Amino acid sequence: MVEQKKDFKNWHQKKIKLHEDKQRPFFHEREVWFASLGVNIGFEQDGRGDKFLRPVIVIRKFNNEVLWILPLTKNAKKSKYYMQVFISESKEPSTVILSQIRLLDSKRLQYKIGDISEDNYNEIKKRLAALIEA
User: Fold this and answer.
1) Where in the sequence is the domain holding 14, given as residue range(s)?
2) Residue 90 maps to which CATH number?
3) Where are the alpha helices (DSSP H) in the chain?
4) How many CA atoms lie within 13 A of 40 on its CB side?
């Protein structure tokens, strides 16, 4: 398998701009946002496009600055590390990558694209707890 070259330099410039210029948006748990996740190491989920975006679910809001997120993928996967959800504004399912929970600064949030149901949210929390306890 040929690994695609990652554009760390371009991401670094975008990250500086986010840090210095971006205003923090107002957000809630259960919301789905496009977030600038950037270019990451190895198998960590990267963002895509010129803003290095990836859809994420807000799992825990600690305050207006810091939150836990879980990244989403369109690839359907089945194991204890993945869970299928539906975003309120979409007819197609997305897959939550439970193993890649991550702390973010809310400056990385770009725009909201929907919500997940309370049932999905509660199931995600239950599965995360099971992964931590395993």
Assistant:
1) 8-133
2) 2.30.30.110
3) 8-21, 118-133
4) 16
